[in-house]
Amino acid sequence: MQIQVVKSKIHRVKVTGADLNYIGSITIDEALMEASNIIEGEKVSIVNINNGERFETYVIKGARQSGEITLNGPAARKVQPGDIIIIIAYATLEFEAAKSFTPWLVFPDETTNLLK
């Protein structure tokens, strides 16, 4: 049996931009991507603390140490710059392997989105 578990989480980052006229995705600071073990093109779930929206998109790499968290395309309608979001990636594992799996959890500075 396989189950889905949290693989990676970037907990409570501030949205720095919303670009409706982009083809879609979320742009994430490369340093946050590396710390959370999220790769470019990976599917992620977004949870907006401010308005309760939950949606999925894919990741594109932002400039390292920029603190950038930009929602692009249609997802831009689900956030406002300044909103606090959680970014979650999941993995499918065998049940027994999932019991001992340790996810990558990142808790950046909420005002700058930089690693503490």
TrEMBL record:
The active site is at residues 25, 58. Its main location: cytoplasm. GO terms for cellular component: cytosol. Binds 1 pyruvoyl group covalently per subunit. It catalyses: L-aspartate + H(+) = beta-alanine + CO2. Pfam families: Asp_decarbox. SUPFAM superfamilies: ADC-like. It comes from the Bacteria. Keywords: Autocatalytic cleavage, Cytoplasm, Decarboxylase, Lyase, Pantothenate biosynthesis, Pyruvate, Schiff base, Zymogen. One of its GO terms (biological process) is pantothenate biosynthetic process. Substrate binds at residues 57, 73-75. The modification Pyruvic acid (Ser) is found at residue 25. It is found in: Cytoplasm. One of its GO terms (molecular function) is aspartate 1-decarboxylase activity. Its cofactor is pyruvate. Its EC number is 4.1.1.11. Pathway: Cofactor biosynthesis; (R)-pantothenate biosynthesis; beta-alanine from L-aspartate: step 1/1. Heterooctamer of four alpha and four beta subunits. Belongs to the PanD family. Catalyzes the pyruvoyl-dependent decarboxylation of aspartate to produce beta-alanine. PANTHER family: ASPARTATE 1-DECARBOXYLASE (PTHR21012:SF0). This is Aspartate 1-decarboxylase. It comes from Flavobacterium fontis.
